[in-house]
Amino acid sequence: MERVDRAGWKRSLATAVTGALVWSAWAAFVNGRHGVEAWLPAAATQAVLAFLIAFFMTAAVEFLVRLARRAWVSFVLAVGGTFAVIVPATLLGHTLAGTPELLATVTPPWLIGLVFCSMYTLGALRARRTGRHEES
Questions:
Q1: Taking the chain, what is the end-to-end CA distance rounded to the nearest angstrom?
Q2: For the chain, which residues make up each domain, given as ranges?
Q3: Closest-CA residue to 113 (of 75, 87, 74)
Q4: Fewest CB atoms less than 10 Å from the CB: which of 28, 63, 76, 93?
Q5: How far apart are CA 121 and CA 115, in angstroms?
Q6: Helix-strand-coil split of the chain, %, nearest 5
Q7: What digits encode the pLDDT tens for the residues 29-80?
Q8: How far, in Å, CA of 106 to CA of 91, rounded?
Q9: Crossing angle of helices 36-64 and 81-97, rounded to 10°
Q10: Which of 38, 8, 18 is nearest to 109 (CA)?
């Protein structure tokens, strides 16, 4: 079983930083009408969650696509497995943080994350099939 290559870790880190910046700004915007005492913890929570989720999601996809011989099984493992962790983790994190606009805060990142994870997984599967892993 191969480990995630150096380029995979770089892609994971770049995705995580981008996700943290974009989705923390979204959380601040959505919760802004509740004042700084509401939007600041929501944005901080979303920044941490988005970073961790994006980093580990891309790293997990890089790893999980190598587990199964059949592409569709790899796809289900990668996308289904990551979202089985992401949804409860974000709900728990924002519930503990007291995010007032919970569903408005987490739904867009979930949807975009699902599309991203699916596309990223398909790209990783194509790279696996062709034997091509870009070193960047």
A1: 22
A2: 6-130
A3: 87
A4: 76
A5: 10
A6: 85, 0, 15
A7: 999 999 999 999 999 999 999 999 888 888 888 888 888 888 899 899 889 9
A8: 8
A9: 160
A10: 18
Nearest one of 65, 90, 70 to 80, comparing CA atoms: 65
Positive/negative CA dihedral, 125, 7, 82, 21: negative
DSSP designation for 132: -
AA identity, residue 94: H
Instruction: Say how far apart CA 82 and CA 60 lie, in whole Å.
Output: 7
Q: Which two tokens stand for residue 101?
A: 């606009």
Q: For residue 59, how far is the Cα from the chain centroid?
A: 10
Q: Residue 130 and residue 64: Cα distance in Å, rounded?
A: 17
Residue with tokens 């960047």: 136
Q: Taking a C-beta distance cutoff of 8 angstroms, is the pair 33, 11 a contact? A: no
Cβ-based neighbours of 5, under 8 Å, separated by 6 or more? 62, 133, 135
pLDDT digits (tens, 9 = 90+) for 15-30: 899 999 999 999 999 9
Look up residue 29 and give its amino acid.
F
